[in-house]
Amino acid sequence: KEEEDSDAQWELEEENQAWLRVKANAEKLQKVVDAWKADIQRSALRLQALQQEVAEKMLSLRSFEDTLHASQMAAQPEDLAREGRGSRFAKYGSKIEMLVNHVKKIQSDDPGVKLICFVQWEDLKRKVSSALEEFGVEHVSLQGSVWGRQTALRRFQYELDGPRMLILSLEESASGTNLTAANHVLIVHPMEAESREEAVAFEMQAVGRVRR
């Protein structure tokens, strides 16, 4: 059987050689080989281009990840600080938070500014004062004895290094007091009175103490 297989293989090789000795057949086979070779070369070039594209995209991805990580690390302290401020403001409420942030913005824009904040009720005035103190806004509140009130007014009105914010009650603040050192008036809420006219009168009186 091995001899038969050997003979069959030898005959096949002879037939292949005879087929190749025909010029047309040889040329046809060469064209097939050349086309196959060209296709392999094109595939190799495409593979090389794809590898280059993948490498560039991986580099771009790493650069994006680095930038994103840096941004997250830079923003994290600010986010934590904002969350911390939000949790601290929770006990005061959103309106007082807005008031404190507004005051800090005014003072940031003009460090020499002086503000008067009018509040009607004593408990709210204490709450506003507590929030201002907690968030680092120096201020003085008109309260206590007559001497204490006069001292607070004098510090605010005339002392260069005195507090730059004064909290007053719309009803209980001294009538006729000139506070012309101030250049901003904040009224925390609409005045509550027996009539709208009386409320407007209180508010106009408050503004009039600054604008003389």
Distance between the termini: 128 Å
The portion of residues assigned to helices is 55-70%
What fraction strand?
5-15%
The biggest sheet amounts to: 4 strands, parallel
Give the total of beta strands: 4
Task: Please give the oligomerization state of what you see.
Answer: single chain
How would the global form be characterised? rod-shaped
Rounded to an integer in angstroms, the radius of gyration calculated over CA atoms is 44 Å
Number of helices: 6
Query: What structural class do you assign from the helix and strand content?
Result: alpha/beta
Mean pLDDT: 77
The helix/strand order is HHHEHEHEEH
* Neighbour order of strands in the largest sheet: 2-3-1-4
Descriptive overview:
The chain is α/β, with parallel strands linked by helices and 212 residues long. The protein is 67% helix and 8% strand. The chain contains 6 helices and 4 strands. The protein has helices at residues 2-20, 23-89, 94-109, 122-134, 146-158, 196-208; strands at residues 115-119, 140-141, 165-169, 184-187. Helix 5 (146-158) links the parallel strand 2 and strand 3. The longest helix is centred in the N-terminal third of the chain and has 67 residues, at 23-89. It is rod-shaped and about 130 Å long. The N and C termini lie far apart (128 Å).
